[in-house]
Design a protein that fits this description.
2 copies of one chain form a homodimer. Chain A is α+β, with helices and mostly antiparallel strands. Chain A has 4 helices and 3 strands; from the N terminus they run H-E-H-H-E-E-H. Chain A binds a DNA duplex (30 and 30 nucleotides) through helix 2, helix 3 and strand 3.
Chain lengths: 112, 112
DNA sequence: ACCTTATACATAGTTTATCTATGGAAAGAT
DNA sequence: ATCTTTCCATAGATAAACTATGTATAAGGT
């Protein structure tokens, strides 16, 4: 009866990068971040709230993002997260590291 | 003074896939598996022994590999791991899942 | 003979990130 | 009234990788 669960676990270590990337489009609240990532990834990447909110706290502590309470278009209170300049640098670094590693994995998986 | 450490952490969840893939070339011992992955990845992926040996035990328990003691070309005793047919199927499944996820990540990181 | 390096296996304990499972609260629709 | 959706948040469990450590032997240099 239920629908088939597409099942979409995240690769540990990629969540922070995806969140930072999402915030380059502008400030957004947690729920919106989760929805955006899920939609853009065609429902493959599912960001669980139990993973997201702790991650957002970590990002804030490290200074990659700031946050403030605001109101959504739905007239709901929500905490909006905003990328800091430091966060932007971090995103570039993480993105480069990610590419380096996935390319290395590709060399193992598809040897010449 | 030491050499620059290239630093190459693995993405959690990829180690088993890389090991299974390595064993498609033929039976090999743990130390050799680590060396192979490191070399083919151009020193980007470093397989720590503290990660590898527990992983090999997990693979064996699940039936993806078997093992037996043998002697290397260096005249040393070593435990050789061999991919099972089940392991080969598992590799195909993990590889497909990995591609699905990395492609989804790419959609988030490089939106059209 | 001795010492060092490289090879080879293995475990214990820590860290860290994600997940599951909950819980609360308010808006809007039926 | 009640239900669904939106939105936040935490506690506890799970799992994979890491660091550190220990053992042992072969080969090669001095």
């Amino acid at each position: 009866m239920g629908k088939e669960s597409t099942k979409g676990p995240l690769m540990p270590g990629t969540l922070e990068m995806l969140v930072l990337k999402t915030l380059t489009r502008g400030p957004l609240h947690g729920y919106g971040i989760a929805q955006y990532i899920r939609q853009v990834s065609d429902d493959v990447l599912r960001v669980e709230e139990g993973s997201l909110y702790p991650a957002l706290q970590r990002l804030q502590i490290k200074g990659w993002v700031t946050s403030e309470w605001d109101v959504t278009g739905n007239n709901r209170r929500a905490r909006y997260y905003r990328l800091t300049p430091l966060g932007r640098k971090q995103l570039a670094a993480e993105s480069a590291a990610y590419n380096r590693i996935t390319e290395a994995i590709a060399r193992v998986m598809n040897p010449a």
